[in-house]
Amino acid sequence: MKVLVVGSGGREHAIIRALARSPLVTELLCAPGNAGIVADAECLPVAADAVDQIVQLAAERNVELVVVGPEAPLVGGLVDALRAAGIAAFGPVAAAARLEGSKAYAKEVMEAAGVPTGGWTTALSVEQAIAAVRGYPAVIKFDGLAAGKGVVIAADEAEARAALEEFLVERRFGDGQVVVEEFLEGEELSLLALCDGERAVPMAPAQDYKRIFDGDLGPNTGGMGSYCPVPGVDAARVAELSALVHQPIVDYFAAAGTPFHGVLYAGLMMTVEGPKVLEYNARFGDPETQAVLPRLRSDLAELLLAATKSGGLAGRELDWDPRWAVTVVLASAGYPDSPRLGDAISGLERITDPLELTCAGVAAVEGALVTAGGRVLNVTALGETPAAARAAAYAGVEEIEFDGKQARSDIALRAEEST
Ligand code: AMP
Ligand code: GLY
Q: 3-class secondary structure for 224-287?
């Protein structure tokens, strides 16, 4: 089977690595990929959100399965266009991907589907939003795709006003609305499921680290690391959570006539009142995928193809390596505000099996890799214990050098301490 993966980050590299393990896969293409992914797939210079060009590429190259990594092409209708052209595509159609594309719409769907989530209201102006705040800290969410920069936890009214000015005036989008949400406390959990339009098959639970600095300090980022599985969240608990937060959404979109095929990613807050959904994503998480997929023993290519067919995942259970996986992200100087590009990267040749190196913001200059984005590289290690996986991942992180390299030192420390 010829497979095309759409995207250019660490998540797509991890998907490609997992697909490469499948005996069904004969050829791997990536659009556009990056200077590190070229080692594992043929990279083609087509932008991930160039819908017509991706369809044309898939048709010309007789691709049998397209796997869409990022949210923008999903929301932009890439899967709709591929399906119309008769090409199997893993990912939701635009009508279902809107679950990620609009925070207000996601809240409406959660309410209609009976999924537990924090109290919320929408507002169209700064004053309306301030009036809707029930106390501080207050959670203010941009109502559109924001690449990890759409949520502000405001400590007081001044911070709330600053965020609202930014969301409603400077970055005004669509109807120009925001969601004001109840602040929830607890441990976060990322629970992803493969969906075939009828049912959700949960994947192993993962944890990601959104803040830039140790101890969850500093601004939110796209994600600085992850681990999988999560202590205390066993298979029975995963099944229970999935029945609560995945299946009702799959049922909702099936009833709406736009069945959800692809990954349904629930970002959960485990509150004292029980689990509540913070957000849904309509795709694999980044960097959760880099820690989840190395543990998957089932054939990913076969599963993703099956998920494109109605009910194709019936009776499936996923088989997982019992070991722990830890992924540490290496980010460039200045990330997340203004990542510096062009710093020479060294030491990559020292990251060898069984460590897994996945590449995100990298470019090749005269045959050598340089930084070319905020999140640059991911190092993933498996271990018999969280401590062993952590130690191995951080040993890898130490080998890689570039000016201004940023990495958190506490990824999976929580898992290590609680096992
Ligand atoms: P989201 O993009 O909605 O997942 O939000 C990004 C991050 O903001 C989440 O991973 C949480 O850390 C935080 N967050 C979002 N909503 C809330 C909330 N209602 N209460 C507390 N933290 C939140
Ligand atoms: N790790 C968070 C995300 O993929 O949105």
A: CEEEECCCCCCHHHHHHHHHHHCHHHHHHHHHCCCCCEEEEEEEEEEECCEEEEEEEECCCCCC
Q: Which of 54-68, 115-129, 290-304 has the lowest mean pLDDT?
A: 115-129
The token pair at 35 is 């200077």
Q: Residue 179: beta bridge partners?
A: 122, 141
- Of 224, 269, 281, the one to substitute when testing ligand 1's pocket (max ligand atoms within 8 A of C-beta) is 269
Residue nearest to atom 3 of ligand 2 (CA): 285
With the most atoms of ligand 2 within 8 angstroms of its CB, the residue from 265, 278, 284 to mutate is: 265
Which ligand neighbours the alpha carbon of 375 most closely? 2
Rg (C-alpha) for the chain, rounded Å, is: 20
Q: Which residues have CB under 6 Å of ligand 2?
A: 208, 223, 281, 285-286, 288
pLDDT in tens, 27-40: 999 999 999 999 99
Domains and CATH numbers, the chain: 2-97 (3.40.50.20), 120-181 (3.30.1490.20), 187-307 (3.30.470.20), 324-418 (3.90.600.10)
Instruction: List beta partners, residue 32.
Output: 7
Q: Which residues on neighbouring strands pair with residue 265, listed in sequence order? A: 192, 281
Closest residue CA from atom 5 of ligand 1: 151
Instruction: Give the atom of ligand 2 at the shortest distance from the alpha carbon of 226.
Output: 1
Q: Give the tens place of pLDDT for each residue, 67-96.
A: 999 999 999 999 999 999 999 999 999 999
Q: How far is CA 250 from the centre of its chain?
A: 19
Question: pLDDT digit string (tens) for 201-236?
Answer: 999 999 999 999 999 999 889 999 999 999 999 999
Distance, CA of 135 to chain centre: 30
Could you tell me the distance, in angstroms and rounded to a whole number, from the CA of residue 277 to the centre of ligand 2?
A: 14
Say if ligand 1 is within 6 A of residue 279 CB: yes
- H or E element: which one contains 108? helix 103-113
DSSP-assigned beta bridge partners for residue 297: none
Distance 147 CA to ligand 2 centre (A): 9
From the CB of 180, is ligand 1 less than 6 Å away?
no
